[in-house]
Model the fold of this input.
Amino acid sequence: MPTVTFLPAEITVEVPAGTLIHEAAIQAGIEELHLPCGAKGTCGQCLVEVVSGQSDSLGHTRLDAALADSHLVMACQTKVRDDLVVRLKTTRDAAMRVLGESHFLVSQEFLPEEDNLSPLYRTETLQVPLATVEEHYSDWQRLVRELCRDNGHVPVRAGLPVLRKLAAALRDEDGLVTVMLQEDETALHVLDVQAGRMPFIAVGLAIDIGTTTIAVQMISLHDGRVLAIRTAYNAQARRGADVISRIDYARTSERQAELRHLVLDTLNDMIDSMLTHSGVPGDAIRSVFIAANTTMVHLLLGLPPRYIREAPYVPTVSTMPTLTAGEVGLVINPQAIVAFAPGVGSYVGGDITAGLLCTELLTNHEETFLYLDIGTNGEIVLGNADWLVTCACSAGPAFEGAGIKCGMRATEGAIEFLEISDGGREVRYDVIGDGKPVGICGSGLICLLGELLVHGIVDQSGHFNDLDTERLVQQDNTRGFVLEWAANTGEERDLVITEPDIENLMRTKAAIYAACALILANVGLDWRSIARVYIAGGFGRYIQVEDAVLIGLLPDLPYEKFRYIGNASLTGAYCALLSAAHRRNLAALATRMTYLDLSSDPHYMDSYLAALFLPHTELGLFPSVALRLRSQESGARR
Done:
C-alpha cells in the first residue's frame, strides 16, 4: 500500500490507494488540517503542497484551474495514487478570545439565589421522626414525607440498594440521615442514604457546546461558586465550519463517529484541565447540564444528523431525556446525571432556550423583546412572557473569519477594531495581543465594513469607489483595500479585504437582519415595538452596536435598547444546573415557542435581497446612517 508522509511533522501513514489525502491525515492523527466546508471542495482551506509522488484529483471544483500549474491540491478532493510527501500549511497556535464567564452581564434577578439552590444532584440532611406505636408509617413513607416538606409534592423514587440500608440508617442516629438526591424531569431519585451528618463533595458542570467554541464551568453544587472555567474551539470545526457543512460531512457512520470523538476529546481535555487545576477528584462531579444546538447534541451522542436538513426537517429528538456520564462518554463519575436544555426545532436548540433564562422574555408580560444569538448560525426569538416566536437563519462562518481572504478567528494577532481616515489613506487598528496583525476577526470585519461605507471607500452595493489612495489595489482579478502592508504584519503578507470578501459579509448580515424583519412582520409588529434587544453569544459580546447598525446587521434603534448578555447559553446552563425552578421554566418554555420555518416562507428571499445593501435598500429604515452618509457626501463635495 502507498505511504503518505506529512511535513513538517514528518509523520508517515500507510493507506490503500484511492484514499483521500485528508482521510490519510486523520489516520495519521494530524489535527492541523481543517475542512470548513465539510470536505465538499468549495472553500479551498485544506490546501497542501505535494512535495513528491502522484495523486489524482476528483476534479470539477472551482479551484482546479487556479491550482493546475502549482503543486497545491485540496486534501479533501485528492486521492493518493502512490507514495506521497505533502506539506501542510503552518498555523499559529494562539489563545482564543472567548467569553466564558458572562454572569456579570446578566441581571442578578435571573440568577439562582445562593441560599436557595436546588441543583440536579445534592445532599440533604434530614431529621426523620422515629416510628411510634400510634403512627405505623413505614420508614420509606416517613423519609418521603420529610423530603416533600422541603421539595414540594414531587414523585420520590429509590432503587433496591437504598431500601435495603434504609432501616439501619434511620435507627443508627435516631433518625438523622444524609440523603443523596438526583432530580430529573420525572422525579426526585434517592441515590443513597447514610446515618448521621455526612459531608460530601458535590461538583457539577455547566457546558455550552457551540458550533465554533465550547465553554465549560465547574461549579460547587453546595453554594453555586464557579471553581474553574475553560473555553476551547470545537475540534469538529476541522470537518465543517457551520452546522450544514458538518451534517454533510457526517453522512457515513465512520465520519459520524469521528465527529463524536472530536467533541468528546475536546470536552474531556477541558474537564481534565479543570480537575487538575482545582484538585477536585473526577468522581466528585455528580451532575452536568448541557446547552447546545440540535445538531451539536446529535453529534455528541452519535445520533444521525442528516434528517435535520432533509424534508420534513425532523431531528431524532428535540427534548433529550437525562442520561449518565458513562452513556455520553464524559470521563467523570460514570453515574453522574447529564441533562440537556430542550430544543424547539431542527435549527433552534437548547442553547437558545437556555439563553432565554437570562432575559425578561420569560417574566415581562407588558413589553416585547428581541433575542439575537449571532454566530455561525443566527437564532432569533421575539415575544414576552405571554407569547414567543422563534426562527433561525444560516448566517455562515464569515464573521468567524472563514471565506474571508485575510479573515481569522478572534485569536492573538487578529485586528478587532480599526479606524480609516477620509480618503482611505490611513488605517489605525487594535490587535488582540498587541503584536503585529496576521488577520482580522469578526468584530473587526463589522467595524471595517462600516468604516469603508461612511468614508466613501465602498458604495452601498459593497463595490469600491475610485479614490486616490495606494491602498486600493487590483488582486486576483478583483479589487481590494489594503489594511496593512506585508512589512508590518506578523506573516509578512499584505492584509487585503476584497470585493468578494465584502459580498460574503453582506450576505451574512443580510440573512440575520432579514430574519428579524420577517419575524416581526409575521406577528404584525415593527421595530418601534421592541423594548429591548438582547445580544447573546461569545461573538456577540464584542460587536459594537454603532458598527453593526452602520452596515445593517442590527436595527437602527436607540443604543440604550441594546443589552449584551454574553454567553447566555452557558449562563442558562449554570442556572438550570443549580435551580429546579429554572429547569421547570425550561421545560415549559420549549413547549410554548412557535417555530417559524424561513425556508418555507416565500417572503424571506424578498426580505433577504432587500438587506443585501449597506445598510439596506430602504435607507429610511436607518435614519442615523442616512444622516452620516449625507454628511459624508457633503464633506466630499466641499
In short: The first strand starts at residue 3 and ends at 7. Residues 121-195 form a domain with the Ubiquitin-like (UB roll) fold (CATH 3.10.20.880). DSSP finds 16 helices and 29 strands in the chain.
